[in-house]
Amino acid sequence: MKRLNPIGLSANRSGGIKLSQRYWWLLTEGACAIVFGILAIAWPRLTFFLFLTIFGIYALVDGLVHIGHGLTGRGRARARPVQAGQTASTSTWSRWLLFVEGGVGLIAGLLCIVLPRTPNRALLFIIAAWLIIKGIGFLLQAPTRGWLTGITGVLAIAASLYLFIDPTSAFRNILLVVGIYALIMGVTLMIRGWKASVAQRKPRTARAPAL
Known about the structure:
The chain has 211 residues and is an all-alpha fold. It has one domain. The protein has seven helices and no strands. Helix 2 runs antiparallel to helix 3 and helix 6 packs antiparallel against helix 7. The longest helix has 35 residues. The protein starts with 15 loop residues before the first helix and ends in a 6-residue tail after the last helix.
């Protein structure tokens, strides 16, 4: 007798399942964000030079992850099974957004590492620009990723505006703002990675009823 596929695995084999098999990308990115956030918050004697170095390394890793997703076609549009009305242009647009985020991350990371003695305000503006791009990216994911992703995007934009408006505020306040956002973003990414790992295991355990 013909067997039904209750989860539509064959229809989505080229879509959501691919990204769920790479959930460790999300877990790695989330872990890096959490480590950076903890260092920024719990290390009050952190110098500006060391902060820029740590941030630069994190931004480089984040940028490479996003560019890797874009190159391999594991964009946000493929993070879930294809929904009705979704077109190929949606996936292409999503991949370009990944390239933009990744490119900004690479540029910000390289500048913070290579030019650590540039006037502090200029480097803070670079970090603020990175934050606002990340925030826009998270907000665009909110309709499919849920309210937690949307809140993370709002916080990123708020943090970037804080750096743009008051770049001369106490260095400790800047560490707290960037560190808190990094922690929240890391937790969000870890949750997404965990959900993706669950999605990976479901097809293996699901059994189609025989008719």
